[in-house]
Design brief:
171 residues, alpha+beta, two-stranded antiparallel sheet, 6 strands, Ulcer-associated gene restriction endonuclease, endonuclease activity, HNH_nuc, nuclease
Length: 171
């Protein structure tokens, strides 16, 4: 790309020349209207907010932050599970986290968020797909990790806050 600023005074760009063309397939970000309508009625999957201010308005987010799945690019093949409701602030943060994952090859560690006990609900730190990352599906992350925590407690003899065989609450 070449910029020509020689025609007018100041810092204006008069002309842009493009050298070559993009041979890669471009991801179509459009989302089916029925999917948009569904998620616009939801609360943010990450923080639970649903408001009217600029940062709390709900946006429909592609769960896969890399946007490299050609099926999701086809609006006729999209499913509700390909998307989630996020407020603008959470969606902006997720975008940056996914960008960093793409650059480094390492997924976001959910234990950076206070209260999260596991880094992923599936898979490891090294990128091998978005499924399993907190950013991909925070609701599934909570469901899976809550189940793990419950099972760990049950294996240790805790049930409904009491240790088996004792009548004093443990928490």
């Amino acid at each position: 790309m070449e910029f020509d600023k020689g025609q007018t005074l100041g810092n204006f760009i008069d002309r842009i020349r493009l050298n070559g063309y993009n041979t890669e397939c471009v991801f179509n970000q459009s989302i089916c209207q029925d999917i948009k309508n569904h998620y616009k009625q939801q609360c943010c999957a990450m923080c639970g907010v649903r408001g009217n201010s600029e940062n709390t308005q709900i946006e429909v987010d592609h769960k896969d932050g890399r946007k490299d799945d050609s099926r999701v690019s086809d609006s006729n093949a999209q499913t509700f599970d390909d998307f989630q409701a996020l407020c603008k602030a959470c969606n902006d943060k997720k975008r940056q986290i996914c960008k960093e994952c793409k650059e480094t090859g390492y997924r976001f560690d959910a234990t950076k968020i206070p209260g999260n006990r596991y880094p992923f609900y599936e898979g490891e730190a090294e990128y091998d797909g978005c499924v399993g990352c907190y950013q991909y599906d925070p609701i599934q992350y909570r469901k899976t990790c809550n189940g793990r925590i419950y099972n760990e407690g049950h294996q240790k003899g805790y049930y409904e806050g009491y240790q088996n065989g004792y009548h004093q609450k443990t928490t």
